[in-house]
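To close the chapter, one final illustration. This time we ask the reader to focus less on the individual chains and more on the assembly as a whole: which components sit near each other, and how the overall shape emerges from the parts.
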Amino acid sequence: MHLLAKQFTFYDNLRDRSISHHLFGHFEENLEILREEIQSKGIVSKNLKDAREYTNTIGQIEIAMLFKKIGFDIELEPRIPRSKKKSDIKIVMGEFAAYIEVRTLHDREGTVVCKTESTIISTINNHPIPTIKDIIIEKTQQLSEHHPGIIAFHLDKIPRTLHIEAAFYEVSKECPIISGMLLYRHYNNHE
Amino acid sequence: MLIDFFVNPYAKLPLPDPIERLLEKGGITISTWQDEAIALLEEVTGK
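The assembled structure is written out below.
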C-alpha cells in the first residue's frame, strides 16, 4: 500500500483499518490495471483530485474495471460520434460498441430508533423514486443515439435496490435510448 | 459484490445476445421484466 494512503488509516479502529486497507488495495489495483486509459485522459486524474467529482470518478473507474475484466476494450470520457456529447465510458468488443453513463449513489442516513453502546438500529432512508428517475433521465442526455446505452449506478453502502429498479421500470418506456441499467456494489472482505 | 443488469424491454438498440451472454459469463446477473416482477413493482410504487 502507498505510504500516503496508509496515513488515512492511522485513526481507524482495528475493524475500520482492515476495511480501509482493503479499499485502498482495491483502488490501487484498479488504477494499475486502468493506468493507460486514465493517463490518456487527463480529466480523469483531475477529477480524482476534485472533491465534487471524486466519488463519481471512483464509480466510473469501478465500472470501467468491471468491463475491462470481462474482456472489453475501454475508453474513458469518450466523445460521442456525430454529436458534441461526451460519455463516461465506451466499451468495445469487435464490431460492438456501447456507451455507459455512471452515477455513484451514497446511502442516506435513516432515523435512529434504538441506540446502545454496541448497536444502532435505524430506519432505511432510500432515495426517493422521483429523484432516481430524474438522475436516469438526466444521464440519458449523454448517451449515443446510434449505439446501445447503459446507465450504471455505483452503489455506496446502499443495502436495497428495489426502489432503483422501480424508478428504472417507470422511465424505461420513455427512455428507449437506454439499453439497460447496471447496479454495481463492491463489498469489502467483512461484508 | 452485487452486479445486476436490468434489460430495457423498450430499448431502441438492445444489447446483442452474444454480448448479454458474455456479461453473464463475467458474473453479471441479467434480468428482464417478468410479469411477476412488474406486478411486484406496481405494488411497491402504487402504479
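The longest strand of chain B covers residues 2-7. The beta strands of chain B are 2-7, 29-31. With these observations in hand, you are ready for the problems at the end of the chapter.
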